[in-house]
Amino acid sequence: MKTLWTEMSVEIEKQKKLTGSLIIKMTQANYKNKINKILIPEATGSIICFASLVFILINIQKLNNWYLLTCGIISVIILFVLPILSIKAVRRMMSVNILNNDLKRSLLEYSKSKKQFVSVQKLNFYLGAILMLTTLPVTAQIIGETDLFIKTRLWLWYAIAFPFFYGITKWVFKSYNKTSTAAENILKELDS
Amino acid sequence: MQNKAAFIAIIQENEGLIYKVAKVYTDSKEDEEDLYQEIVYQLWRSFPSFRNDAKVSTWMYRIALNTAITHLNKIKKKGDHVPISEAHLNTTDTNDILKEERIEILYTQIKKLDTVEKGIILLYLEGKTYDEIAGITGFTATNVGTRLGRIKQKIISQIN
Questions:
Q1: Which terminus of chain A has a smaller tally of CB atoms within 10 A, N or C?
Q2: How far apart are CA A19 and CA B8, in angstroms?
Q3: Mutate to test the interface with B, among A26, A108, A121 (most CBs of B within 10 A)
Q4: Measured CA angle at B40 (ends B34, B43), to 5 deg
Q5: Cβ contact B69–A110 (<8 Å)
Q6: What pLDDT, on a 0 to 100 scale, did the predictor assign at position A37?
Q7: Where are the alpha helices (DSSP H) in chain B?
């Protein structure tokens, strides 16, 4: 095995080298990727949540009965909490000290943060679903001055939709649980 | 400017190391190129703090392996991507088809190992001592020896 590997390594060393400009291009391309793929979506999501929160707060006096007011308050709380949870979880995963840790420590930190990320994703899923339920009547009241609970028997539709939501949750959580189990297995392996 | 030139020289000197780590930890050419690029980027980030008191290869392995494990399961990026194939990425290009097949079999068996095992066997095949492997991975030298024994058994039973 070692001999074959050494022979292969010798062949690799003979191959053409990367140019200096390509190497520098790689460092710059990846830096831009991180800005575009992580920071911008995070910022955009947070801005949308914050704008929605402000919109509801400004118009809260239009929620003229207890159940609409309750939906409004729940919506505001979730719109405040959701981006904070997501950003914290993503940041934790990105904060693994690649540059100074050894492999074991990096793997430990990464697996723990991955487990936490999955828990946050699950919580976000539930919060997102609740937010959908609460913002619908709130938005209808604020924009159209229509009480959907009275006009469309919204309660009934929510009750009918619940089993479907339960099924979707199980399906979505399957992959979350897979990720969490994989991270857990890595942690156990490091302990052995 | 001096920093850039020194960094480029180190990368060019050790391209094969980066290629091997990227190949072992990914399953597709696209992921391999992504990881390759990510490793170069992380090495660049770390370069200012590299003090030359450790061996260059030790420093590079540590960063490369750490990058590989945190790169696991990431959603494929569709951003700026430097096509490495343009630069004739190091691939074994022997005329010996049998040897190439054997190399591919070896890579396939290594890829079946778990994250930690891949790192350890890679360092072992690269000629690192148990102490050096321990230094890079954070395990004790004794632990490295035990794990290596298990890994070799695993590869043998996978092949059989």
A1: C
A2: 8
A3: A26
A4: 140
A5: yes
A6: 66
A7: 2-13, 15-25, 29-46, 56-70, 97-111, 115-125, 130-137, 141-159
Q: Give me the residue from B15, B103, B152 closest to A8, CB to CB.
A: B103
Its ipTM equals 0.78
Q: Where do the structural domains in chain A lie, given as residue ranges?
A: 20-191
Q: Of A6, A12, A31, which has the smallest distance from its Cβ to B90's Cβ?
A: A12
Q: How far apart are CA A77 and CA A83, in angstroms?
A: 11
Residue appearing with tokens 């919060």? A127
Name A7's Cβ contacts closer than 8 Å, sequence gap at least 6.
Answer: B99
The more confident residue out of A118 and A27 is A118
Do A117 and A89 meet the contact criterion of CB atoms below 8 Å apart?
A: yes
Local confidence pLDDT in tens for the 160 residues of chain B = 568 888 888 898 888 899 999 999 988 888 888 899 889 989 998 888 887 667 888 999 999 999 998 876 554 444 455 555 544 444 555 567 787 888 888 888 898 998 899 999 999 999 999 999 999 999 999 999 999 999 999 888 887 7
CA A71 to CA A137: how far, in whole Å?
8
Distance from CA of B84 to the nearest CA of A (A): 8
Residue A24 confidence (pLDDT): 80
Q: What is the pLDDT of residues A34-64, one digit of tens each?
A: 666 667 777 888 899 999 999 999 999 999 8
Closest residue of A to B147, CA-based?
A: A192
Cβ atoms of B32 and B78 within 8 Å: the answer is: no
Q: Is there a contact between B19 and A12 if contact means CB atoms under 8 Å apart?
A: yes
Report all structural domains of chain B as residue ranges with CATH numbers, in order of start: 1-91 (1.10.1740.10), 92-160 (1.10.10)
Tokens of B31: 């992921």
Q: Which of B46, B93, B137 sits opposite A15 (nearest CB)?
A: B93
Q: Is B42 exposed, middle or buried (0-12, 13-18, 19+ CB in 10 A)?
A: buried
